[in-house]
Design brief:
alpha/beta, six-stranded parallel β-sheet
């Protein structure tokens, strides 16, 4: 379909809706300065049904949200056209109100989706959807991408790119007990904190890159995961260590949480998480390193253009090192950090 044919007025909406296959998925948002996070979210939303309808806050609606006198940056008509260019978007409609409640009542979606910063029990939209027999899904955002961060980069460009130590978490920093998600179960590996301190002291930004398929498998919630992250940051801060970022992949194709049971480009060995960190934190690929404990970590580093990648843990023979294409093996993060920083 041509992009223009996907744009719909309220007057046309009842007639157009009759032609769309069900189940019908609806989402809404400002979508100002459209970026990869938006595209990923919309693609995941479209996979929940046969049709995806996107409702966009008009310029008037954005001003009601109080995002700032200079918002939106892109006019509603232009934002609508750009979303209509996406193959997995079937219909785009603008709304002037503060919320899309009236539009939800008109569209009566089978499935309504919003980003992970919204909570079902706090959403009037989800209540209206349920009253009309629909279901609501609240999917986590792709970390590292936001309009706010884009604006920050434009307004305050950083002239220098940082070098970083990209670190797998379980098996590198803490004992891998299998789907660790409570702080009480988080046990640092011997020397891990000292290793982090050495890397930081040598000018490396510390960035955790971790697969968290337990979210897709339903073993723990995003709130539990973020609670552990907060505890980890606070504990490291007490030891003089600052994490520049934590990037995680919540997906797994065999997951039980439908919105997360997808193929993605961020689950290692794919390079998506590293690319997100490079983009969000202004990292220098040539000067950065990766430290992991599995072949998937090394493969992700290579795919993302990180030339120095190290394995830590039990595997330490040269034949395995050649097959895994790691630069070197070390018994622990501390041993690796000592060699890198000496």
């Amino acid at each position: 379909m041509q992009a223009e044919s996907k744009l719909c007025s309220w007057h046309e909406l009842p007639r157009r809706l009759k032609r769309l296959p069900r189940p019908l998925v609806m989402t809404n948002g400002v979508f100002d300065l459209i970026h990869r996070g938006h595209a990923t979210y919309l693609q995941q939303a479209s996979s929940l049904g046969a049709t995806l309808v996107v409702a966009i806050n008009s310029d008037t609606s954005v001003r009601l949200l109080g995002k700032g006198l200079d918002r939106p940056f892109i006019s509603g008509d232009d934002r609508a056209y750009m979303l209509a260019c996406l193959s997995f978007v079937d219909l785009v409609v603008l709304f002037d109100e503060l919320t899309p409640i009236t539009l939800i009542k008109l569209i009566r979606p089978d499935i309504y989706t919003k980003g992970g910063d919204y909570k079902p029990d706090m959403s009037e939209e989800s209540r209206v959807v349920a009253e009309n027999g629909g279901k609501s899904y609240f999917m986590p955002f792709l970390s590292g991408f936001s309009t706010t961060s884009l604006v920050e980069k434009i307004r305050h460009p950083r002239p220098l790119f940082r070098k970083a130590a990209l670190l797998d978490r379980d098996g590198v920093i803490n004992i891998d007990k299998g789907y660790v998600h409570h702080w009480s179960d988080f046990t640092f590996l011997p020397g891990a904190i000292e290793g982090l301190r050495l890397l930081q002291g040598s000018g490396y930004a510390l960035v955790i890159i971790t697969n968290q398929s337990g979210l897709a498998r339903g073993y723990y919630t995003s709130d539990e995961y973020e609670s552990l992250n907060n505890s980890l940051r606070l504990h490291l801060a007490d030891n003089g260590i600052e994490l520049a970022g934590i990037f995680h992949c919540p997906h797994h194709p065999n997951g039980v949480i439908e919105a997360l049971a997808v193929e993605c480009d961020c689950r290692k060995p794919n390079p998506g998480l590293i690319n997100q960190a490079v983009e969000a934190l202004w990292l220098d690929r040539d000067r950065s390193i990766l430290i992991g404990d599995k072949i998937s970590d090394i493969e992700a580093a290579r795919a993302a253009g990180i030339n120095r990648a190290y394995l830590v843990g039990a595997v330490n023979d040269q034949d395995s090192m050649a097959s895994f294409k790691a630069n070197a093996f070390f018994e622990s993060l501390l041993d690796c950090a000592r060699e890198i920083t000496r």
